[in-house]
Specification:
By secondary structure, this protein is an all-alpha fold. It contains 13 helices and 2 strands. A hairpin with a 4-residue loop joins strand 1 and strand 2. The longest helix has 29 residues. Bound molecules: Phenylacetyl coenzyme A. The site of Phenylacetyl coenzyme A has 29 residues, from helix 2, helix 6 and helix 9.
Length: 313
């Protein structure tokens, strides 16, 4: 009875758009769903540094190297805000990383694709950050306070990232025939993976109904995907690039672009760990984590020493 009343009050708060804070009562399933989504979001930011890091030593100018380095550092910061938000739900950082390393936690499928040319760095900023922003602007309105506040800060930085990528693609598109071809090739390879970032269609989305009711998600996977497609087509056309979809067409009745069916076999294959880069990405993360063990040990030893000192004083 008591739980039913608490649940009713909780839903009333959600319906009134009052944020839920860490010490507030919340249903266990709400907590678990947030732990899952926020930690997976954090892992995506961190694993997402790898395909871009691949080009740091080969950026074509000092300017582009500095900008790329700043962007990748931003992604690390996003991961940290999100881990901190997720930790307020009572799970430790070590546990999140353990789930990632064991394959129990996911990260965005898109980061399992390789970055073959410099144009791919442009495509990641333009398309992957472009898709991430559409989702994250919506998540600023999520019902969990710490997640919502992290999203506000992250969105400000993501719009710079999107422009950084678009600038790279725009420069290549205006360059030699070979450079234009590089931009087109990157668009061809990143377009569908970026569309898949929004997850399964609404009817097949396991978590959407409950997440929308609790306002963890504010819009459905398909609504967000459609917004991304609509805004991106125009940006590509300005550059004289074509999208790899023969059925792409503005639907006069809906006012939205129609696209071909999504290759869900490819999506699930990548999500289940069999994409082109899954094993490399995870192995790299595990190695970096193991290599950094001495830093964590030193930081803890320093903290313990300082605590002991302050007790004596
Ligand atoms: N990849 O029931 P739903 C970025 C899984 S940040 C892998 O619809 P949900 C910044 C899903 O987890 C990009 N798995 O799930 C950057 C679930 O499995 P589970 C990341 C996926 O959570 C840019 C199952 O499928 N952004 O890019 C994917 O309600 C450049 C059923 O799906 C976020 O994470 C996928 N694409 O909706 C960094 C945003 N889609 O967990 C570096 C926050 C679905 O039961 C460089 N997350 N699955 O085992 C969300 O908004 C949601 O989690 C969705 C999925 C929309 C991704």
């Amino acid at each position: 009875m008591e739980d039913a009343k608490k649940l009713e009050e909780f839903q009333a708060k959600i319906d009134a758009d009052i944020k839920i804070e860490p010490k507030d009562w919340m249903p266990e399933k709400y907590r678990q769903n947030l732990v899952r989504q926020i930690s997976q979001h954090a892992h995506s930011e961190i694993i997402g540094m790898q395909p871009e890091g691949n080009w740091l030593t080969r950026a074509p100018s000092l300017r582009s190297k500095k900008i790329l380095m700043a962007k990748i550092q931003d992604e690390a910061g996003h991961g940290l805000y999100l881990y901190c938000a997720a930790e307020t739900l009572g799970v430790s950082r070590e546990q999140f990383l353990k789930w990632l390393h064991e394959g129990a936690a996911k990260y965005s499928s898109v980061f399992n694709y390789p970055t073959l040319t410099w144009a791919d760095i442009g495509a990641i900023g333009w398309l992957v950050d472009g898709a991430a922003i559409v989702n994250q602007v919506s998540l600023q309105g999520t019902s969990y306070g710490p997640y919502s506040r992290a999203m506000v800060k992250i969105c400000k930085e993501e719009s710079f990232h999107q422009r950084q990528g678009y600038e790279i693609i725009a420069d290549l598109s205006k360059g030699t025939e070979e450079q234009k071809q590089m931009a087109q090739d990157a668009l061809n390879r990143w377009w569908w993976p970026s569309i898949m970032m929004f997850g399964p269609h609404d009817g097949d989305s396991a978590h959407s109904n409950q997440s929308l009711k609790w306002k963890i998600k504010r819009e459905s996977n398909d609504e967000l995907r459609q917004r991304y497609v609509d805004k991106t087509i125009h940006q590509g056309e300005i550059l004289g690039l074509t999208f790899p979809d023969e059925n792409l067409k503005l639907n006069e009745q809906t006012g939205h672009y129609d696209i071909s069916p999504i290759d869900w076999d490819e999506f699930w294959n990548v999500v289940k760990g069999n994409g082109p880069g899954n094993r490399i990405r995870l192995a790299h993360h595990i190695k970096a984590h193991d290599d950094g063990a001495w830093v964590r040990e030193a930081a803890i030893a320093y903290r313990n020493k300082m605590n002991a000192k302050s007790k004596i004083a």
